[in-house]
Amino acid sequence: MAGVVRYHATTKKQTREKHIDESLIVRWTLISIAVLFIAIMIILPLAVVMTEALKKGASVYFAAIAHEDAMSALRLTLITAFIAVPLNTVFGVLVAWAISKFKFRGKQLLLTLIDLPFAVSPVIAGLVFVLMFGAQSYLGPWLSEHNIKIIFAVPGIIIATLFITVPFVAREIIPLMQQQGITEEEAAVSLGAKGFQVFWRVTLPNIKWGLLYGIILCNARAMGEFGAVSVVSGHIRGRTNTLPLHIEILYNEYQFSAAFAIASLLMVLAIVTLIVKAIVEWREEVQKVHL
Amino acid sequence: MSKRSIIPGFRLSIGISVFYLSILVLIPLSIIFIKSFELSLAQFWDTIVNPRVLASYRISFVTAFCAAIINTVFGLIVAWVLVRYQFPGKKIIDALVDIPFALPTAVAGIALTALYAKNGWIGSLLEPLGIKVAYSPLGIIVALTFIGIPFVVRTVQPVIEDLEKEMEEAAVMLGAYRLRTLLRVVLPTLYPALLTGFTLAFARGIGEYGSVVFISGNMPLVTEISPLLIMTKLEQYDYAGATAIAAVMLIVSFLLLLLINLLQWSMNRRLTANS
Question: Which pLDDT score is estimated for A4?
């Protein structure tokens, strides 16, 4: 399915017989190409963020982060994630429950629907909410009459982020729950477990690590979304700026060190996300060994 | 349902899920099409065939295509190396492949721009050779390549892992050299996965905005991508124009999503048929 592709690296060492392996030269050439590609495309950009951020010294770095506009952007980013992540987590668990534990018609269609936000350009995601809630929209006159501001205000940012992050938790746990099947839940029900108890006591322990990674990934995207949020925010300094938008403003004002300082915060978030992923995979391996 | 399941919560979970998806995804997206129908055909057509709009489509498609091709080639090598060979730092390389998923696009955008600008680490090396990356279409390709890295690697990796050793053995027994085995026996089994990865990277590249705006320079007709043009139209309060451009892009995205689903469906069928 589109979007986040789930994959676990194998830890088992494979030794292959010579006749079905490449020669040493070919092997090391391919390894060099792969390492060089990742080094140029991924490691260098990460390194550049840190060096640019610290170019003008630690005091400029910390001043940029402690600036009141940066702080208000951080606050808005946290608020947005704080609303979007739990809602999409609940949705993800519910939809995964329906898809993995029951047979029904239109399941494939439902899966495709979950993927839609992956397929749509972030700018279009922002545009649809401008068309829905903006001054020109059907709802526009009613909203302004009741003094409700959605576009160019915080609610718009939250709604756009909700849209963008819909698939993350669901996509992460659906394959897991499908693998687990339904026998354990059926056993629990036959033994008298009721509704939520089945999920809490039987399903959740099986999926908790995958769920955790889904939530963390959803959070990374919620805090880092740029395109969709940029369309609906109106870029009002100190009011409707999230961290990624704040980076853009600083960058366009040629405050490069400050822009990279804020960027380094988000980079740390990305790295932490991947570390959690590594831990999750390691835990799953351990779980598999114990089975 | 043929037989009622004894597991609780079907109606509750499906009800809430469908409701949630409808108000958050389905209704908002359909607004684009409703708004497009409000335009007259002539209005719609005039927006779409405007030279600047056509150029933006061309730029978006060509750069996304080039980036997806680059990712297919290097993604295959990275995936192959990660599955088949042992080398120091392998785990770190494997983890780094996911960085473009987790790193905010704005961060990627400014980092790549700094790297490829005239005075940047890579830009200063390419400058004497007369190669300009930042603020040129090449820059867009670099940004989209970065964004697309995980797609090919992560789709091809599990398929390489599941390859049967016996197949390669048989090819050797039948007298094929290693290179011939790889090209004629191994590579064809990877085609569906490669194509899926390519399409995922391509689809993502067409819609990408955050990483591109910084590095592209945003010159109309040269480095202005479609999502940016939508943004520009919106800033000029040209909602009709923005909607028309978006409608065309949405249709393309839907077609690509359909293609991806078909590809994965046939891939899964092949996998289950083999096991």
Answer: 47
Q: Which H or E run contains A222? A: helix A204-224
The domain ranges of chain A are: 20-54, 57-290
d(Cα B33, Cα B243) in Å, to the nearest integer? 8
Confidence tier at A119 by pLDDT (50, 70, 90): confident
**Which pLDDT score is estimated for B271?**
63
Give the burial class of B49: count Cβ atoms within 10 A of its Cβ; 0-12 exposed, 13-18 middle, 19 or more buried: exposed
A261/B115 Cα distance (integer angstroms): 16
Q: Mutate which of B32, B90, B101 to disrupt the A interface (most A C-beta within 10 Å)? A: B101
d(CA B144, CA B204): 8
Superfamily of domain A57-290 in the CATH hierarchy: MetI-like (1.10.3720.10)
CB contact under 8 A, B7 and A108: no
Domain residue spans in chain B?
Answer: 41-274
Kindly report, residue by residue over A31-41, the tens digit of the pLDDT. Answer: 999 999 999 99
The residue type of B49 is V
Residues of chain B with pLDDT > 90, as a percent, come to 64
SS3 of residue B97 by DSSP: coil
Report the C-alpha gap between B221 and B224 in whole angstroms: 6
Contacting residues for A15 by C-beta, under 8 A, at least 6 apart: none
Q: How far is B186 from chain A (nearest CA, A)?
A: 11
Residues of chain B in contact with residue A155, where contact means CB-CB under 8 angstroms, are none
Residue with tokens 């915080």: A154
Give CA–CA dist A64/A258, Å, rounded.
Answer: 5
- B100 has pLDDT over 90: yes
The CATH-assigned architecture of domain B41-274 is: Orthogonal Bundle (1.10)
Q: For residue A290, give how far its alpha carbon lies from the nearest alpha carbon of chain B (Å).
A: 23
* pLDDT score recorded for residue A181: 85
Tally of helices (H runs) and strands (E runs) in chain B: 15, 0
A166 to B24: CB separation less than 8 angstroms, yes or no: yes
What amino acid occupies position A222? Answer: A
Residues in Cβ contact with B78 at an 8 Å cutoff, skipping those fewer than 6 apart: A34, A37, A38, B93, B97, B153
Rama region for A118: left / alpha / beta (φ>0; ψ in -120 to 50; rest) = alpha
Query: End-to-end distance of chain B based on CA atoms, in angstroms?
Result: 28
Residue written as tokens 């390419």?
Answer: B126
How far apart CA B63 and CA A225 sit, in angstroms, is 22
Q: Is B173 on the interface with A (CB under 8 A)?
A: no
